[in-house]
Design a protein that fits this description.
The protein is 70% helix and 2% strand. By secondary structure, it is mostly helical. The chain folds into 2 domains: 112 residues, no CATH class; 141 residues, no CATH class.
Length: 254
């Protein structure tokens, strides 16, 4: 069953000038710093709550718009929570500062952009970071939870990617990609191989997903030639072949 959402999403008006605009920018800079401080003093849960509370504008509209606004903000939520968990996953201060700077760049520079390329990058980062957190932090959960989590991350990332294109079948394509990701998670979840800290399924979904997204993006801008299409498909196939051939399928992590 496809998820039907209102065709019109209620958007809150962000300040663009004057003191309100200045306060908004300062708040965007202070949020990562505050999150960093909370992580350093081991209040990770409070840091995540603070990040979620910063999305309060999603609910400053009529309740019938809440599902649409939640999905529209899903990429931001996935990236923000993932960066906080990455920050909390290490005790090395310079790594924590790196994730803090990355979070600041996301909030101030990438997230506000609405051009096609930027939205595509947002979606790809949401899928990559969302899956990385899912398998790094919750890889030992029951298989059904991993499958459901993979489906959700893939679906939300695909919807976010397709929102910037004039695609008439956004929900259908997002469901197809999410179903493929969930099916792969069900199969590979029985082995759950890791390359260092990266789960094998993330490598596969990133390769296939980014490759298909690049093909879709180039085709929508009339820049996809037959030669370029063959090159992208060849690169995708080569990476997948290396992953499959060199993986240890005995169940031992690598």
């Amino acid at each position: 069953m496809s998820l039907r959402l209102p065709t019109r999403i209620a958007k809150t008006v962000k300040p663009t000038r004057g003191f309100a605009h200045f306060f908004h920018i300062v708040a965007m800079f202070l949020l990562p710093v505050t999150v960093y401080i909370l992580v350093r003093i081991d209040f990770v849960s409070l840091a995540i709550i603070l990040v979620l509370l910063s999305k309060w504008r999603m609910f400053a509209v009529r309740p019938r718009y809440w599902p649409a606004n939640l999905i529209a903000s899903s990429a931001d939520i996935l990236v923000s929570v993932a960066l906080v968990l990455f920050m909390a996953n290490t005790s090395i201060q310079w790594w924590q500062l790196f994730w803090t700077a990355t979070y600041s760049a996301w909030l101030v520079w990438l997230k506000p952009r609405s051009d096609v390329f930027s939205v595509s990058v947002q979606a790809m980062l949401a899928q990559l970071l969302g899956l990385a957190v899912l398998y790094l932090k919750f890889g030992d959960t029951p298989l059904v939870a991993l499958v459901a989590g993979t489906w959700l991350v893939a679906y939300l990332a695909a919807r976010h990617f397709l929102t910037s294109f004039e695609e008439a079948h956004t929900a259908l394509l997002a469901h197809v990609w999410a179903f493929f990701a969930a099916g792969l998670a069900f199969v590979l979840g029985h082995w759950l191989l890791f390359y260092g800290t990266i789960a094998q399924i993330i490598v596969i979904l990133t390769t296939v997903g980014y490759g298909l997204a690049a093909l879709y993006y180039l085709d929508s801008h009339d820049r996809l030639t037959a030669l370029l299409q063959r090159q992208l498909l060849a690169i995708m196939f080569a990476i997948l072949l290396i992953v499959v051939v060199l993986s240890d399928w005995t169940g031992v992590t690598v």
